[in-house]
Write a structure and sequence with these properties.
This protein has 401 residues and is an alpha/beta fold. Helix content is 33%, strand content 21%. The protein has helices spanning 3-10, 37-40, 44-51, 69-76, 88-95, 129-142, 197-213, 237-241, 252-260, 272-282, 295-302, 305-323, 369-372, 385-392, and strands at 18-23, 54-59, 104-115, 118-121, 145-146, 149-155, 160-166, 184-185, 222-230, 245-248, 264-265, 288-293, 329-333, 350-356, 378-381. Helix 5 packs across helix 9, helix 10 runs parallel beside helix 12 and helix 11 runs antiparallel to helix 12 (305-323). The structure holds zinc ion. Residues 24-25, 69, 72, 297, 335-336 line the site of zinc ion (ZN).
C-alpha cells in the first residue's frame, strides 16, 4: 500500500487542535564557545517545555542530504520530499508572491547581456532592482500574450525575474534557455518531449520579442530562462490527513508552499507578535496550524550567530502566549539546520519537540540538539513527524485487526 493510502485509511476527524511551529533553519552545530545557537540562547520557556515533552531529532530528507526549504517543508507537512518535487520555477514564483495555477508553467528568468549572438554577461552586470522593475513594467505593457498564452512577469532582486506562461497544453519538459557560461552563443529553450513543442516555441518567441523591446537597454538586452516547471500534483493535507489546515507565515515562499498542500493562508503582519495575534484570532476556525518563523534561517545564512540566538530568545518570550491557547498537540521544530558556522543550510538533524496529553515526558534539561538526541522520539525522518502529531491528537485509527 502507498503511504498516502495508509493515512487516508487510518486518519479520522476530531475536535483536537494541532499546532506546528517551524523555526526555519533552527538546528545548528557547535560554534561560539563550542555551543550551538540553541545552547547559547537563554530559553527558560522552551527548556521547561522540553522537560515535559517528547523530543528527538528529525532528518529533513535523507541522511546526509542538505535540503532547500521547499523539500524540507514538504517533509514536515507529512509528504515524502523525494516523491513530490517542486520545480525551481514554481518555487521562485511562490517566493515573489505570484499566484500559480495548474495551467501554468513557471520559469526563472535573468536579464543578461548579448553581443553578436554571444552571451557576455549572464546577469547583465547585476542591474539594480529598480531598473529591473522598470524593464519588467515595459515588457509587461507591450507583451501580454503570445498566441493564446498569457505572459505574466514579476521582478525579483537585481537581474532576476519570474515568468509565468499561462495557457492550455503547456509542458515543463523544456530545456533551459541558458548557455550556463559566458562567452558562449545564446541557447533557446528546446522541447525535451513531443508534448513540449508549443511551450518551447512560445518561450523562444518570448525571448526574441523581449530582445526587440530591450534593444537599447544594454547591458540588459536579453533574457535567460531556466527551471521550467509545472504546478506539482500534490494531494492536499485535507485529502490525506483529514485536517483543516491554516498557515501563518510572513514570507511569500512559505505561504506559497503551504498553499501547495491546501492550507488556507491567514493574514499577518511582519512581527512574531503579529503572527501570534493571527494565531489567536483564528484559533477557533481550524484544527491544524502551521506557524513559520523565518529569521532563524536568515541569520544562520549570514553567519550571524548572535542574532540567530536573539531570534530564538524572542520566540521563547512569546511561547507562553502560544501555550495559553492549549493546543492538544504542539510541535516546535525546524525545517532543516542552518548552522551559523556554515552560513548555509545543512544536513544535520533538527531538534523536534512534541507536547500532548499522551506523550512521554523526557525530562530533558533543555531544548537543544544534544538534549533532543537523548529524547524518546530518537532520530526519525521529518515526514513521519506528521504521523506523530496525528497519533497524539488521536486522529489515527488502529492498523489491522
Ligand atoms: Zn528553510
Amino acid at each position: 500500500m502507498e503511504r498516502e493510502e495508509l493515512f487516508k485509511m487510518l486518519t479520522v476527524r476530531n475536535e483536537k487542535k494541532i499546532l506546528l511551529v517551524v523555526l526555519d533553519g533552527l538546528g545548528g552545530i557547535p560554534f561560539k564557545d563550542g555551543k550551538t545557537e540553541l545552547e547559547a540562547a537563554n530559553t527558560p520557556n522552551l527548556d521547561a517545555l522540553a522537560k515535559e515533552s517528547s523530543c528527538g531529532l528529525s532528518i529533513p530528507v535523507r541522511e546526509g542530504i542538505t535540503p532547500g526549504s521547499g523539500p524540507a517543508h514538504l517533509a514536515i507537512f507529512g509528504y515524502d520530499p523525494i516523491k513530490y518535487e517542486i520545480g525551481r520555477g514554481i518555487l521562485e514564483a511562490l517566493g515573489v508572491g505570484m499566484d500559480v495555477t495548474k495551467r501554468d508553467v513557471a520559469v526563472r528568468g535573468n536579464f543578461a547581456t548579448i553581443e553578436n549572438g554571444i552571451i557576455t554577461d549572464r546577469r547583465a552586470g547585476r542591474i539594480p532592482t529598480e531598473v529591473n522593475r522598470q524593464l519588467i513594467k515595459e515588457i509587461s505593457d507591450r507583451l501580454k500574450k503570445i498566441d493564446d498564452v498569457e505572459i505574466i512577469l514579476k521582478s525579483g532582486r537585481e537581474h532576476r525575474f519570474v515568468l509565468i506562461l499561462r495557457g492550455d497544453g503547456l509542458s515543463d519538459e523544456v530545456s533551459d534557455g541558458d548557455p550556463e557560461k559566458e562567452g558562449l552563443p545564446q541557447k533557446l529553450p528546446q522541447p525535451l518531449a513531443p508534448q513540449a513543442g508549443k511551450t518551447a516555441e512560445i518561450a523562444s518567441r518570448f525571448i526574441k520579442e523581449v530582445e526587440k523591446i530591450l534593444k537599447d537597454k544594454h547591458p540588459a538586452n536579453t533574457v535567460l530562462l531556466r527551471g521550467f516547471s509545472k504546478y506539482p500534483d500534490i494531494p492536499s493535507m485535507e485529502e490525506i490527513f483529514k485536517v483543516k489546515p491554516a498557515a501563518i507565515a510572513t514570507y511569500p515562499m512559505y505561504r506559497g508552499l503551504a498553499k501547495l498542500v491546501g492550507m488556507d493562508i491567514l493574514d499577518t503582519g511582519e512581527s512574531l507578535q503579529d503572527e501570534v495575534n493571527s494565531l489567536k484570532e483564528n484559533w477557533g476556525k481550524y484544527d491544524f496550524f502551521y506557524l513559520h518563523v523565518k529569521k532563524t534561517d536568515s541569520y544562520g545564512e549570514d553567519g550571524n550567530f548572535e542574532n540567530k540566538v536573539k531570534v530564538i530568545e524572542e520566540f521563547d518570550a512569546h511561547l507562553p502566549q502560544i501555550l495559553a491557547l492549549k493546543p492538544d498537540v504542539l510541535v516546535i521544530t525546524g525545517d532543516h539546520s542552518t548552522p551559523s558556522k556554515m552560513k548555509s543550510h545543512s544536513w544535520h538533524p533538527v531538534p523536534f519537540l512534541l507536547k500532548s496529553s499522551y506523550c512521554f515526558n523526557d525530562d530533558l534539561k533543555a531544548f537543544t540538539e544534544r538534549e533532543c538526541r537523548k529524547g524518546s522520539l530518537g532520530v526519525f525522518y521529518a515526514q513521519e513527524g506528521m504521523a506523530l502529531m496525528l497519533a497524539n491528537a488521536l486522529r489515527l485509527k488502529k492498523f489491522g485487526a
